[in-house]
Amino acid sequence: MSLPLYYFLTVTAINILMSWALYLPYRVAHLHFLTVANMAISGYLGGWLVQGLGFSFWAALPIGLAVGGLIGWALSLFIGDAPTFAVVIVGFTFIYISRTVIENTPAVGSTMGMFGLPLVAGSPDAHRWALLALLYALVLVVGFLIHRFDHSRLGRAASAVFVDKDLATSFGVDIKKLGRLLQVFSSTLAGGCGVIYGFLYRSFHLDFFTFHLVGLFMTIIFVGGYATMWGVVVAAPALYGLTLLFPPAVASWRIVIYGAILVAVLVLKPEGFITRRLVLTIERLLSSKRKKIL
Amino acid sequence: MQVFLAQVINGLSLGSIYVLLVTGFNLLLLVAMIIHFAYPQVVVFSMYIAWVVLRYTNNSVPLAVLASVGASVAINLASAPLFQKIMKNREEVDINSTMVVSMGIGMIITDVLSHGFNKGLPISFPRQLVGDVALFRVGLISLLSGQVISLAVGVLAVSGVFLLLYKTRQGRAFRAIAEDPAGARLVGIPLLSTGLSSYALSGVLGGLIAVLLALMLGYASPGLGEQVAHKVLGVSIIAGLGNLPGGLVVGLALGILEALCQGYLPGSWSNAIAFVVLLVVILAKPRGLFGIKL
Fold first, then answer.
1. Rounded CA gap, A71 and A77, in Å?
2. Which residues, 6+ apart, have CB-to-CB distance to B54 below 8 Å?
3. What are the tens digits of pLDDT across the range B233-292?
4. Residue A78 is nearest to which of B35, B283, B287, comparing CB atoms?
5. How many of the other CB atoms lie within 10 Å of CB of A2?
6. In chain A, which residue's Cα lies nearest the Cα of B292?
7. Per the CB < 8 Å rule, is B104 touching A259?
8. Domain total of chain A
9. CB contact, 8 Å: B108 with chain A?
10. Are the beta carbons of B86 and A270 separated by less than 8 Å?
11. Which one of A64, B80, B231, B239 has the minimum C-beta count within 10 Å?
12. How far apart are CA B203 and CA A98, in angstroms?
């Protein structure tokens, strides 16, 4: 497999997973940017475990997942039912705090970062295939779980919370518990993505975890459509691939392009391209075809 | 004790800038009903415009101030139709979606600054214009011209805004819209033009803040807007969104806290301490210390 294709596929998978990590708490109107901080914390921790303590990548990955989940759980005790803007600012402040701690921690390379992380499998080729397989297995598993969630009573409760919190409460939805569940899941996922993200490039640097990343994930969700999980699946490869098609001089302006697309979509098509109605229509079409075949 | 007093003076001048920023931010929140997250980015953009004008006019300060105010007002007024369109699309005031649009605008401004000006490097203002002349010095305590000007302009501007809000007809219209938009419309207050004048007023404030920041810091960088944006949103949330007197108290307190951290802690940690305090207060009181005024 060529390197550009490998990076396209792996980065797209990371973008899908991380955008799903934002999508889930947004089901209850929480823009949970803590995910990017979790990505950095678990990523660096995983890198340090492997490079500093001699752990294998396969042992560091579950630890990264667990640490992400733990941080998400601890903070969700306070912001499980907080207003959106409070959740946003908690995410941003956490990004700053984690960046400052990493900058001042020599064990993880401070501002220089960590380089020369070992391969996760025997040869460079095996390393790439292993990460690719791991990422797409995760996409399938997480996608399945989110699909089940969206079609469950909890998913319907989340939709009710998104539309009207007071109404949802009067229906007996425990807003705080639901918010906490989604925040913990999203933080766990982000922790795992952080570890894999570093091993993709076999290095960690603070420039990997900037506010541009927040902007990218936000653009993927809102352009694809925040009302269903499928918007992310369509928008992640499309937006990342779009900038690869441009000449380098234009591609370097990708954040401006993403920002312009985000603003344009929110103004012209506020629900994004893949709306819930579109998904329902496709599902109905597919099920009627299936019936005809049977 | 001398260090403490010197840092309190520093903190008051820095805090006065936070107060101005929070006042402009809250004005838009109360009257136009948007969370203009990118407001500090607009301010930093105005700093860059002032820098360009200074370069091409042989350091003409009046022209730089005019250009800075003009740029800030122009961006605010240009973004107004976008926000209005989103609110119309949603058929109700949706603070969350205006916040996301604002983040998109912020992404664009930050990336334009990092590509279009000075090759992305930080800009520095001419030394003779930066307010680092000591007007008064006793031991470690010194009063710099920049600090005096920023404090004086800050006090005047905030007093002016408060006078406008509480002693004029236009101010009553602003407050009426903030209190009850439907009621304000019923008694004949034009929502659109009053909303637009709040964009213009916060633009004027933004231009002034840009000049004061240039005086105080002597430099600007593309990432400065993001950092300030997160602090301003943090201060607004801690004070209680839309609470103008609360913003005054918390803005000054944050300025003093940051200055004290800079005085007593290594430089790279001072920002993190400020963010930790913001985080702790937001976690404990997600709806603010002085109550939300929305």
1. 10
2. B60, B61, B64, B125, B126, B129
3. 888 888 888 888 888 899 999 889 888 888 887 766 777 787 888 888 888 887 788 876
4. B283
5. 7
6. A83
7. yes
8. 2
9. yes
10. yes
11. B80
12. 33
Residue B227 contacts A where some CB pair is shorter than 8 Å: yes
pLDDT band (50, 70, 90) for residue A186:
very high
Helix A34-53 with A211-224: angle, nearest 10 deg? 130
Task: Report the distance separating Cα B71 and Cα B40, nearest Å.
Answer: 13
In the three-class reduction of DSSP (H, G, I as helix; E, B as strand; rest coil), residue A270 is classed as coil
- Separation between Cα atoms, residue B182 and residue B142, nearest integer Å: 52
Chain B contact for A33, CB < 8 A? no
Domain that holds residue A244: 210-230+238-294
Residues A189 and A226 in one domain: no
Residue B15 neighbours by CB under 8 Å, 6+ apart: B251, B252, B253, B254, B255, B256
Question: Is the torsion defined by CA of B97, B99, B105, B110 positive or negative?
Answer: negative
In terms of domains, do A198 and A267 share one?
no
Q: Which helix (H) or strand (E) segment is B219 a member of? A: strand B219-220
Clarify whether residues A187 and A121 are in a common domain. yes
CB distance A31–B278 less than 8 Å? Answer: no
- Between chain A and chain B, the number of residue pairs with CB atoms below 8 A apart is 123
Of B233, B195, B197, B10, whose CA–CA distance to B88 is shortest?
B195
**Inter-chain touch A259–B111, beta carbons under 8 Å:** yes
Give the pLDDT of residue A294: 63
Q: How far, rounded to the nearest angstrom, does the alpha carbon of residue A217 sit from its chain's CA centroid?
A: 7
For chain B, which domains are there? 2-284 (1.10.3470)
Is the Cβ of A260 closer than 8 Å to some Cβ of chain B? Answer: yes
The CA distance from A55 to the nearest CA of chain B, in Å, is: 30
What's the ipTM?
0.84
